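Supplementary Methods. Inverse-folding protocol.

Structures were first reduced to a discrete structure-token string of length 389. This string, shown here, constituted the complete conditioning input.
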């Protein structure tokens, strides 16, 4: 078992809020973590994908009132959207009786789905946390390449062989396209969505060019926007916005888009080993996306992330606005002997960056110049994690 870093934050959120929504793609370990929490206190677990557990909620208020003294865990809660009104009443009833936390733990596979369903009924009563796949601070330093190649989904990362890992990811992609997405009321042909997802993998960490994607798919631009919104809402794709403050320069405004889990990106491209990856054109962009996901997984929740690029070529791969109103400029390099471009220095001046870092695949940290330090991804993730301490 690999201990999840979010566990302590989840326990604290449950103590402070009557309801907590634990969000994340399927197979990231939400149920496993919830059952670990359930073992620490009186609790009941209901999987709303099973007919027997759904039958128990035919009269949800009556059933849940019988368990008001327990933590109620509702897995795949999108299956029963009508239950939110009942949860609101039970939460308010519990508050009047002095119970301010630990009533409900809701597990969901899509961010927007839970947010839309609970926006009116549970506003002010629920806190949301996101459980990502394994990240660089949860696995050993000697397993970094395996994490990059296989991704962080537990069944993929812990597979007995590279072949088994790749097969699991390919099955995961196929299942999502053929079964999972339809559960959210989306009517997009699986073949079309697979082509779109694969095109994003080929253009990993690139700026979004909706017209090119639409032309390749033979659809309208608004369809591309709809497909992208769906994969972002399912927490499978990252849409990293461009820095938007006025710095007196012509700024690039299109977001950068990437498949969030590197293992899924590689599976979409039929890459199953480190040797195959290092010989593929996607290696550099994939490494950049991997580093960015690792840092954002470690960052405090209030951190704002973007990238910076001007029409003149000044560029920073990742801009973090961390607690304390500090700006960190981060460049990602795959080389063991990274060099800084004039565009990076110009971008840091434009941003008035407080800290400057380069992430590289080596082990030891060292200064590149008087203002910039070169670190490996784990060390920088630790710094990002501790920035608000």
């Amino acid at each position: 078992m690999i201990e999840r870093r979010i566990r302590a934050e989840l326990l604290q959120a449950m103590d402070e809020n009557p309801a907590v929504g634990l969000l994340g793609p399927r197979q990231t370990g939400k149920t496993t973590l919830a059952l670990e929490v359930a073992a620490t206190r009186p609790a009941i677990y209901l999987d709303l994908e099973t007919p027997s557990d759904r039958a128990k909620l035919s009269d949800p208020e009556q059933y849940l009132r019988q368990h008001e003294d327990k933590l109620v865990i509702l897995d795949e809660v999108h299956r029963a959207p009508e239950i939110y009104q009942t949860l609101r009443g039970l939460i308010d009833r519990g508050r009047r009786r002095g119970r301010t936390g630990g009533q409900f733990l809701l597990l969901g596979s899509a961010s927007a789905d839970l947010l839309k369903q609970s926006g009116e009924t549970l506003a002010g009563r629920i806190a949301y946390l996101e459980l990502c796949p394994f990240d660089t601070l949860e696995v050993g330093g000697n397993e970094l390449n395996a994490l990059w190649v296989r991704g962080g989904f537990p069944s993929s990362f812990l597979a007995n062989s590279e072949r088994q890992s790749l097969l699991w990811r390919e099955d995961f992609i196929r299942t999502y396209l053929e079964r999972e997405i339809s559960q959210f009321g989306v009517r997009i042909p699986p073949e079309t969505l697979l082509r779109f997802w694969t095109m994003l993998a080929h253009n990993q960490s690139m700026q979004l060019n909706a017209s090119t994607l639409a032309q390749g798919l033979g659809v309208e631009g608004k369809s591309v926007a709809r497909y992208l919104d769906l994969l972002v809402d399912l927490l499978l794709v990252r849409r990293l916005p461009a820095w938007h403050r006025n710095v007196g320069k012509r700024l690039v405004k299109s977001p950068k888009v990437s498949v969030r889990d590197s293992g899924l990106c590689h599976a979409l491209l039929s890459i199953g080993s480190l040797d195959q990856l290092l010989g593929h054109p996607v290696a550099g962009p994939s490494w950049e996306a991997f580093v960015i996901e690792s840092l954002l997984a470690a960052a405090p929740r209030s951190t704002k992330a973007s990238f910076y690029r001007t029409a003149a070529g000044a560029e920073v791969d990742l801009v973090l606005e961390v607690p304390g109103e500090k700006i960190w400029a981060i460049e990602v390099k795959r080389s063991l002997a990274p060099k800084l471009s004039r565009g990076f220095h110009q971008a840091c001046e434009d941003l008035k960056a407080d800290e400057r870092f380069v992430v590289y695949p080596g082990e030891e940290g060292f200064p590149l110049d008087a203002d910039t330090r070169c670190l490996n991804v784990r060390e920088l993730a630790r710094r990002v994690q501790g920035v608000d301490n």
